[in-house]
UniProtKB/TrEMBL annotation:
Presence of the UniProt keyword NADP in the record: no
Gene3D superfamilies (alphabetical): Membrane associated eicosanoid/glutathione metabolism-like domain
Pfam family for this entry, one: MAPEG
Protein name: Membrane-associated proteins in eicosanoid and glutathione metabolism
Subcellular location: Membrane
Length: 168
């Protein structure tokens, strides 16, 4: 029995993919809330144009505009990372399905690829990344965001390695 299956018959790791998509949109919701709190009105008949930097800049204070841009960029980066996350999850599910009786360290493992740990770590690192991206405006501290990005990407790449190891 792999890490993702329960008595309900649901594959929870597979559900982590749409959960990450929803998670990815949270910075956009935050961006909208800070614009709204600054009195900016979005034209919902053409929201992308209404929210373009050229349309927002100068209509809200510079600090609000900067925070808005960082939140939108965090959302964009989340969505850019979605294929990497989804592929790592799917590779691990495939590895677990094709190798249900894998033995690691002489004992049967219910999570031969460490998928549950990967998913939890991914969400934790990406949450920290989002907070860092949105909150850190100081260039000298922005390396924190970069380290978190590299950590998340490294986790996914390592997950591919673990899936490949299980598949042999």
């Amino acid at each position: 029995m792999s890490s993702g299956f329960t008595a309900t018959g649901l594959n929870y790791p597979l559900l982590a993919i749409p959960a990450y998509y929803v998670f990815s949109v949270v910075p956009h919701a935050y961006a909208m809330s800070i614009l709204k709190s600054a009195g900016y009105k979005v034209n919902n008949s053409n929201p992308k144009a209404s929210l373009s930097p050229a349309n927002v800049q100068g209509k809200v204070p510079d600090a609000v505009f900067s925070a808005y841009q960082r939140a939108e960029n965090a959302q964009n980066n989340n969505l850019e990372q979605l294929p990497l996350f989804a592929a790592a999850v799917l590779a691990s599910i495939l590895a677990e399905r094709l190798s249900p009786s894998i033995k690691i360290g002489g004992t049967g493992s219910l999570d031969p690829t460490g998928l549950a740990t990967f998913i939890g770590a991914w969400f934790a690192v990406r949450a920290a990344y989002n907070v860092a991206y949105i909150q850190i405006a100081d260039h000298s501290k922005s390396f924190i965001r970069s380290v978190l990005w590299m950590t998340g990407s490294g986790l996914a790449i390592y997950q591919f390695y673990k899936a490949a190891q299980v598949l042999g």
